[in-house]
Design brief:
This protein has 206 residues and is mostly beta strands. It has helices at residues 22-25, 89-95; strands at residues 29-33, 39-46, 50-56, 59-65, 74-80, 84-85, 108-120, 123-132, 135-150, 156-167, 186-200. Helices cover 5% and strands 50% of the residues. It has an 8-stranded antiparallel beta barrel. β9 and β10 form a beta hairpin.
């Protein structure tokens, strides 16, 4: 089931309104990201030969889904930098230091969407502003809608997964070390990954 409906290729009269799938319209609402069932991570090349993967254990955010007018959908995410985990404590300590994220001075990484669009089928793109340290730059995240369901506790959920490639130097993360055999210790290119499960907020009683 697509979250965003495609426009018909058939000619439409001025008075025609686009058909709305009731199942999609029912998804409309505000959702809170469930951090215990979501993951925000990254992959970066190390020493030119292998990949290091990590994630941020603490994050929160809100999705606003409009099943009748997808352009009105939006996302807001806040990530606690100090929660970074690559599986090696010394490396994590280096990443939160002034050489990289400087988590004491800049404790959060944030994303605020500015545009949502369908690419085709279950594929979508959400564009917005990513802020790391004191630098804000545009970022487009390609997403796949994984569907919706009601869990065993009665919560209405939606799921998305996606990724985006960035150059960390664009956000001032420039630390590196030259290798004796050529190349550098840490690649500039970083792949960000998102696996999101979000719970629909209850509609207040009138």
């Amino acid at each position: 089931m697509a979250l965003f409906t495609r426009k018909s290729t058939a000619a439409a009269t001025v008075t025609e309104a686009p058909a709305v799938d009731p199942a999609l319209a029912a998804l409309t609402g505000t959702y809170t990201i469930d951090p215990s069932h979501s993951s925000i991570g990254f992959t970066v090349r190390h020493a030119m030969v292998t990949n290091v993967r990590g994630s941020f254990g603490e994050h929160e955010g809100t999705l606003v889904v409009d099943g009748t007018n997808p352009a009105n959908s939006s996302a807001s995410i806040d990530v606690k930098i100090a929660s970074i985990d690559t599986g090696i404590a010394d490396r994590d300590g280096h990443l939160v230091s002034g050489d990289f994220f400087d988590a004491e001075k800049f404790p959060h990484m944030t994303f605020r969407s500015t545009k949502a669009e369908q690419l085709g089928g279950e594929a979508y793109r959400i564009t917005g502003d990513l802020t790391i340290k004191d630098v804000t730059r545009p970022l487009a995240i390609d997403l796949e809608f994984n569907g919706s369901a009601t869990d065993v506790y009665g919560n209405e959920r939606v799921g998305f997964e996606g990724s985006a490639d960035i150059l960390r130097s664009d956000w001032g993360l420039t630390w590196n070390a030259a290798l004796e055999t050529g190349g550098v210790m840490v690649s500039d290119k970083v792949k960000l990954t998102f696996d999101i499960s979000a719970i629909k907020a209850a509609v207040p009683a009138v």
